[in-house]
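task queued by scheduler; priority normal; single chain, no ligands, no partner chains; default sampling; output format set to structure tokens
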Amino acid sequence: MDVDGASAIVTGGAGGLGAATVRQLVSGGASVVIADLADEAGQRLAGELGTSVRFVHTDVTDEVSVQGAVDAASELGPLRIVVTAHGGPVAQSRILDRSNRPYPLETFRRTLDIYLVGTFNTLRLSAARMASCPALDSGQRGVVINTASIAAFEGQVGQSDYSAAKGGVVGLGLVAARDLAPLGIRVMTIAPGTFFTPAFQMSEEDAQAKWGGAIPNPQRMGRPAEYARLVQAIVENDYLNGEVIRIDGAHRFGPR
């Protein structure tokens, strides 16, 4: 499927992996909705990239909010590409703390709501709109690319909620691909390793010194543009479906 001429939604599109993906898709000729809660950053990026990009304030856990992003994307053209790259607050705590008090259930639910429920909410609503789009000559109507993490496979100490949520995103992928196959809608999952984004709140040099040495090859943190190029490769290759692609420099998380 060609990026050129497609309409796309990128959740979390105002920064980090999402912003790099927005830039990549726009450079390939797509019209893109930046679906994010970060109004200032989203509007700034949309203003920078021009009339083919629109920012829509979006809460991925809210049905009406996501539907608004879907409607906005459809105004730009047939919705063919959706990338879920949103983030959110994550607590780093063991299931029992030093006093054997259990991890707050509400915190666990919040993390799953953002990362797993928000991903499914975006998937289901965007797929419904894709299904109404005319099929391309290939028989395809679109592709949804979800973002998991290598923590889905090697969750570290204190990552019970995040690992469970990202594991759920991994588990969702094949089922969704099978459900949507008759409609010509593909579903893929990317599991990034340690990527440098503004969320680290430090310089890239400091982050690299702290974490880059743990990655086997290349011995550095991932760059958002590398994630974005993988997104484009998935969009363009119709035979990629129902699979998880790790992009991690052969990194495997240890316990800590």
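post-processing summary
- Residues 162 and 191 are 13 Å apart (CA to CA).
- The chain has one domain: 7-247.
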